[in-house]
Amino acid sequence: MKKNIYMDSAASWLKPDSVIKAQVDFLTNYYANAGRGICARAGHVDDLIADSRRIVADFIGAEPENIVFVSGATDALNRVVNILTTQPGYSDLSNFAVSDLDHHSARLPWENLWHDAKIRKKFVCDLDENLNIDVNSIPKTDYLTITAMSNVLGVKQDVASIIKVAKQKNPNVITIVDASQYVVHEKINVKEWDCDFLAFSGHKIGADTGIGVLYIKEPDKYFPDKFGGGMINKIIDSEESSQWIYNKVPEKFEAGTLPLTQIVGLKYAIMELEKWNGGKDLINYMYSELSKIPNIKLITSKDACMISFVVKNMHVIDFGALIGTNNICVRVGNMCASWIHKKLNIDGSVRLSVGPWNTMDECEYVINTIKELVK
């Protein structure tokens, strides 16, 4: 069998040896539940989780108490909606704003409220001629979801400016940032962005599946949306009422046993990511070569962090099946981002994305294979 060439890092990263080793070592030698024991072994696990939380906080310019461990970006973005809409003062007469760059996970939870008439109005921010969010189109809204980098177009958005304009129009606006793609390629500073919530998945930066990060700017401001073990400090019952005293943040948002093994690995994934040069030389080479092929229509710009394209007179699923027979893994379809494909008037696209494991030789093989398939 030929070597498999994996060019689908934007969907999920291959796992670095240091992540695998750390997780195996934890499971073999140190495993215990966190936050529930006083023995030395359990205390060591508490220290490991605290250390990973600190690394994540430093990674995005936050404080450890702002970091909530979740199962992934989808979980985080759905939980933000649940948290916000169960707070005292939430009104069914509120409105929200999204954009056509959004992944389904960022937009559908709000669309669902709208469909069920639990939120009054939807705004869709305009895109400019380069398909970036038009800062001048940001409406006066109560809730604004921002996709920091499209998983189809791969260009960073001016998140700080977007949030600044949104706050000028409504000082009380709640801003939610989907940083799932951005976090791979660009440095994040949540304090400079001044966002209220931010989410990303661990598996897209080399950690295991089942772990994600939810940043909450003011965690003490909100009531939890999930209930169970580990998030309650004390329950005071009487015949008339029951008073709950929550644990301190962020534990009050982390009901149940955390994905401990994945959290341990997340620290090492971040450390490995920070060593990577971004692979722009590989992307630039493939972009240049693809632009010379008459039957290829590039969707992404030259400065994008990934490459998306369509093949004239060939369905993207057919292309994916054909290139797969050459042991090349790429993403094809609508990328769970239906709105941008609709904006482009196409049903789907082909996406090439690279990671630290990819080489120039692999890129040359991929380009030569594509030339043969589409000639």
Précis, in short:
This protein is of the alpha/beta class.
Structure overview:
This protein has about 375 residues and is α/β, with parallel strands linked by helices. The chain has twelve helices and 15 strands. Helix 9 (about 280-290) packs parallel to helix 12. Strand 5 (about 145), helix 5 and strand 6 form a beta-alpha-beta unit. The protein has two domains: about 5-15 and about 275-375, Aspartate Aminotransferase, domain 1, CATH 3.90.1150.10; about 15-275, Aspartate Aminotransferase, domain 2 (3-Layer(aba) Sandwich), CATH 3.40.640.10. The strands form four sheets. The protein has a seven-stranded mixed beta sheet with strand order 2-8-7-6-5-3-4, with helices on both faces. The protein is about 35% helix and about 15% strand. The protein starts with a strand and ends with a helix.
CATH class placement of the largest domain: Alpha Beta
Shape: globular
SS content category: alpha/beta
The CATH architecture of the largest domain can be named as 3-Layer(aba) Sandwich
Enumerate how many helices there are, as a single number. Answer: 12
- Note the beta-strand portion: 15-25%
Give the overall average pLDDT: 95
Question: What sequence of helices (H) and strands (E) makes up the elements?
Answer: EHHEHEHEEHEHHEEEEHHEEHEEHEH
CATH topology of the largest domain: Aspartate Aminotransferase, domain 2
Largest sheet: 7 strands, mixed
Q: Give me the oligomer status.
A: single chain
What distance separates the N and C termini? Answer: 25 Å
Rg calculated over all Cα atoms: 22 Å
Helix content: 25-40%
CATH superfamily of the largest domain: Type I PLP-dependent aspartate aminotransferase-like (Major domain)
Low-confidence stretches: none
Number of strands: 15
**How many domain regions?**
2
